[in-house]
Design brief:
about 120 residues, alpha/beta, four-stranded mixed sheet, 3 helices, about 35% helix
């Protein structure tokens, strides 16, 4: 939760409260004004250099980071649902649990249906 703007990063995974992986999920929506720069500054204040922000985009669109300090820009990773699908396929191959493999397969099918067949991943 970012108190100043009442914004919330979609997912934050912390490790001993000292480092974090944050995910901002944008399957179809666009950013709010200064959203990603604010998130990067918030994460930097809380975790120093020990964080990464993954911007998960349905279309591969780039967030507006013009107002972001240059030192924070490398902390942003822009990924698409196509990237996520590739990673899920790797996980499925390594997984030993049938139930988890089915879950991963279903998620991959969902991504195929919603993003793969659409131009630029947009509806």
């Amino acid at each position: 939760h970012i108190p100043a703007d009442r914004r919330r990063i979609d997912v934050v995974i912390t490790f001993d409260g000292r480092s974090a992986i944050a995910i901002e999920n944008k399957p179809w929506a666009r950013d709010q004004v200064r959203q990603i720069p604010d998130y990067l500054q918030h994460l930097h204040k809380k975790y120093g250099e020990r964080f990464v922000l993954i911007y998960l985009s349905g279309s591969g669109s780039q967030p507006d980071i013009n107002e972001c300090p240059a030192m924070l820009k490398p902390k942003l990773r822009i990924k698409t649902y196509r990237d996520l699908r590739d990673w899920l396929g790797i996980c499925r191959k390594e997984c030993e649990s049938d139930k988890v493999r089915w879950l991963l397969s279903d998620f991959m099918s969902y991504i195929d249906e919603k993003f793969e067949s659409l131009p630029n991943g947009e509806p």
